[in-house]
Design brief:
It is built from ten helices and seven strands. It is an alpha/beta fold. Helix 8 (about 205-220) packs across helix 9 (about 230-235).
Length: about 260
């Protein structure tokens, strides 16, 4: 998919270099997200949601950190452009999910909320946001990090790999038939990629990343003998494509609620 950096991209790239020195980061790089928008599963009439998806795909992501601090104190340390796009989204209703358990029913619940809002209540521009932390945060790391750091030891035996980012056969079914019990809107496709194509925004909690780094060091799963700041940076650099890095889940939820997102857990 062809992606385009925003109109201020050149200026931002220069500014990021200055910001990195100002906040003490060893290295910061930006790139647009490449989560698919052309294979969207949004319903007809979802003009605002489709436009948001395109803007989020163009918003830069910072994924070349060398170290990160425990507490983020500058917007260049998280995906503030993408977060601002979400906070500025006006169509209602909007829902923010507080997701903490990778083994819980969180993806299924979001899918059910989408289906009811879109087809029962006729809100095609309904936006759902997963504010992801706790063990649910493991679902937003790529396979390379799962393998290197044996994340199944922290995620639980049910997850020998990050199956929640695996494409399902149901994704190839006819998207026009939303009643198909084996289609992309059914329980057969409770996956992060399918929900992203439906417009769900997955936010990744920096505080959870920092805590995961500490847990790995404590468990002696640290092959490169990295500091906590460097290990947290590596985890951050390996978030799945399309994820939105936020300073912290518990602190970002009030920001979402303040602009009209309904809290769900």
């Amino acid at each position: 998919m062809k992606t385009i950096v925003g109109r201020r991209g050149i200026v931002k790239t220069f500014a990021l270099g200055l910001a990195a020195n100002a906040v003490g980061l060893a290295s910061v790089a930006t790139k647009p997200a490449t989560a698919a928008v052309e294979s969207a599963l949004t319903p007809p009439g979802a003009t605002h949601l489709d436009a948001l998806k395109k803007r989020l795909a163009q918003a830069p992501r910072r994924r070349d950190f060398q170290t990160v601090p425990m507490i983020l104190n500058h917007q260049e340390q998280w995906d503030h452009e993408a977060l601002t796009e979400v906070l500025s989204y006006l169509p209602v209703p909007r829902q923010a999910w507080d997701n903490t358990d990778i083994a819980g029913p969180w993806l299924n619940l979001i899918r059910n909320a989408l289906n009811s809002q879109i087809w029962s209540f006729k809100h095609p521009d309904f936006l759902a946001v997963s504010v992801t932390h706790g063990t649910a945060q493991f679902a937003l790391y790529d396979p390379a990090i799962w393998d290197k750091y044996q994340l199944t030891r922290l995620a639980g035996d049910e997850f020998k790999a990050n199956t929640l980012i695996t494409e399902r056969k149901s994704a190839a079914a006819d998207s026009a038939n939303y009643e198909d019990p084996a289609g992309p809107f059914s329980g057969e496709d409770n996956s992060v990629p399918a929900l992203m194509r439906r417009g769900v925004v997955f936010m990744s909690c920096h505080n959870a990343i920092w805590e995961h780094a500490a847990a790995l060091i404590k468990s002696d799963i640290n092959p490169d003998r990295l500091s906590q700041a460097a290990l947290a940076a590596e985890l951050t650099n390996h978030l799945v494509d399309g994820a939105v890095l936020i300073p912290g889940a518990a602190g970002t939820l009030p920001e979402l609620q303040q602009v009209g997102f309904h809290y769900a857990t």
